[in-house]
Amino acid sequence: MPADGAVAPDDVRTTGTGHDDVDGSDDAARPRGGKIAAAAVNQASVWNIANLLTMLRLILVPGFVALMLADGGYDPAWRSLAWAAFAIAMITDLFDGHLARTYDLVTDFGKIADPIADKAIMGAALICLSSLGDLPWWVTCVILGRELGITLLRFVVIRYGVIPASRGGKLKTLTQGIAVGMYVLALTGWLATLRWWVMAAAVVLTVVTGLDYVRQAIVLRRQGIADRGAATEETRA
Prior knowledge:
By secondary structure, this protein is an all-alpha fold. The protein contains eight helices and no strands.
């Protein structure tokens, strides 16, 4: 039985070819109908809950920036609303990937849009904080430079294999989210001091995990080159 909203292949064949295919007399139309059915299912699958959460994060980016910079960027009320938008984006980031993997909702759109949404909301928050003078620009440059650099590195070595996400990388993401969220809020006193230490931990994790990814990329590249060389030797032999 097809899922809700999906179209059964036999139904598509009937309506797509203009012939009643119940008795199997229109065999020539079956391949065409199958392709139409597959295309329809693939198109519908883009609008799943995981991708909708990713789209929500993308929509939240301009809204977050507007709230963050409203009334000069220093009004506690507007900053609280900006924090709420940032928190929603971070929470949906935790759920969309899990939902996609658990319920087999992985799509090409999700593979591309999910990392873009992640970096967009984090980059927007860091740039806003630095432009307002709340966070040193070198911190923003280190974090964004690392994120963009590792993304590029993954594309460079993808011919040799995929660099898996590490536990350190996940801890880095969590720490960054907490630290940036604390800076978005207009905190004072000991909480303002605490957020500095949390951000320091995030920066350290950012650098350490970044170097580890570089190490993994070098090992992966060397192994890939060695495997190709061995395969070439076997072919020649």
